Amino acid sequence: MPYLKYLKSISSGWPHLRYLADWMEVTTAPVKWKFLKEADRAERASRTRIAMLDFQRGQKVSRIDILDAESLAALLNDKDVDHDHVETRLFVIEDLSRDVVELLGARFGIDPLFFRGHISDYLWYNTRDPWVELPDLDIVSRTRSFSHIRYVQPRYFKSPDSLKQASREAGSFNVLRRLDNDRNHETIFDEEGTSVALIRSKSSFWIRPNKAYESGVLGVLLVDPTVTEGYPLWAGYRNFSPTPGMEDKSSSSEGPPRTSIFDDVLYWIRRRPNEDGAAFALQPKMLIHCMLQLICAEWLTLCRYVAARLVQIEWELENPDFRRDPSRIDASLRKLHPWRRSVPQYRGMLADTIDKHFREGSAKDTDNGLEDLQRDFEIVHKDIVNLQDRIERIILVATAIVSIEESRRAFNQNENLTRLTYLAVVFVPLSFVSSVFSMTSDLGSMGQTFWVYFAVAIPVSLIALGVADFLHIKLLFKRLKARVASSKEN
User: pLDDT tens-digit profile of 104-147?
Assistant: First the structure.
């Protein structure tokens, strides 16, 4: 395997590439190696699902499906298939495998960082993690021939078993992807057992920088596998095509397959006009136009979902029945905190996509072909910013409600203490009289010693009051002293 050998030879100077070499040897995320059997590793290593698309001026897009590593090797080595002199060719790849990385990387000299940035997706790291992805300097990233796009897909599940099955399915991917369970956001409006999972996803795009003996545009687009369990939230994104008229018989009533990102990307690419082949040759980044549309649509769905959850939390805080119970207010706050942590991360993902694909310089270039999508991404980014501000406002309102409810409970407790004071005023004298009369049955005999009780009780009571309220008594004496002094002066 020359490409794997090449990775190991340069890993001392580029240590972050060592993780890609380990990934190729294990055939998936290295942390999973102890859970894999030999048969599993062999299947993962050769897993292949690729579509090769050729764009030629004035002709429909031609497609060749490649479903095993042997067919890919034969296609790349076939002398009748010219990969060095093409007009526009795009390889769309679902998931990654050791053999796919080895064959494509060695045949086209693909930068290993392209594969390295796609195989994992962590939101945070420990200080000892060897798979940390450090960002490039902007001056360096601008010279790269590839880019990565991160996004989130909401998916609906009808039962906990369905969600577990989806988690196991995500674990079968070669690339590391996870489902963030939404159990913290359950409300009374949700059907029991249902849940929504947020799947962090990636798409990566590489364009070959042609050498002296090469010509044309050759690109590689990596897309994530799609979890088949569950359903796209709210039936998924809207159809990008205009709604056909009642009398329009030429338009097809069938929409995108919606079975996977891979199938949807191919569907929309092949529906583009034939003249776009020339545009792809002039502007290679136009090849990811359809993928960017799908990603932007997923972001719009996520924004609507987060907004719906925030409305439910606001309703709980406004409902008097919820506000009377402190535990329910705490539960609402617990639902807010995951969004407070996640939404800024989503904002960073969007900002990174806009910065890389809609830079100020390229946005002004009318020939770029992507400027029509810039406005959509800016709208989504604005929605995310508004959601982040809204979360902070809800937290402030919830904190104020907690303070108000605590003050109300304290006022009620003071009223109860007032009632107890009234009861004490009534019953303490009665208790005193009953204590005195219970000293002896002959009250006449107490005439000689009755004064001793008051001689002892009154001084002791005054001393106790003085100790308990020393500061107030001291202040009282100062005021009396000031009044005496002022009366003498007058």
Answer: 999 999 999 999 999 988 888 888 887 888 888 888 888 889 99
437: Cα separation from own chain's centroid: 76
pTM, two decimals, is: 0.81
- The two tokens of residue 323 are 């506000």
Task: List b or e across 284-317, with b for residues whose CB sees 16 or more CB atoms inside 10 angstroms.
Answer: bbbbbbbbbbbbbbbbbbbbebbeebbebbbebb
First to last CA, the chain: 111
Angstrom distances, CA of residue 418 to CA of 242, 408, 423, 425: 72, 15, 9, 11
157, 148, 214, 65 alpha-carbon torsion, rounded to 10° = 0
DSSP string over 305-334: HHHHHHHHHHHHHH-HHHHT-HHHHHHHHH
User: What does the pLDDT look like over 373-423, one tens digit per residue?
Assistant: 899 999 999 999 999 999 999 988 888 887 777 777 777 777 777 767 766
Query: Whose CA is closest to 101, among 88, 90, 114?
Result: 114
Query: Lowest-confidence range among 168-182, 262-276, 287-301, 399-413?
Result: 399-413
User: Which percentage of the chain shows pLDDT scores above 70?
Assistant: 84
Residue 219: CB partners within 8 Å, gap ≥ 6? 89, 90, 91, 205, 206, 207, 208, 284, 287
Contact 49, 14 (CB under 8 A): no
Residues 140, 142, 144, 148, CA torsion sign: positive
Phi/psi of residue 50, nearest 5 degrees: -135, 145
Q: 139: helix, coil or strand?
A: helix
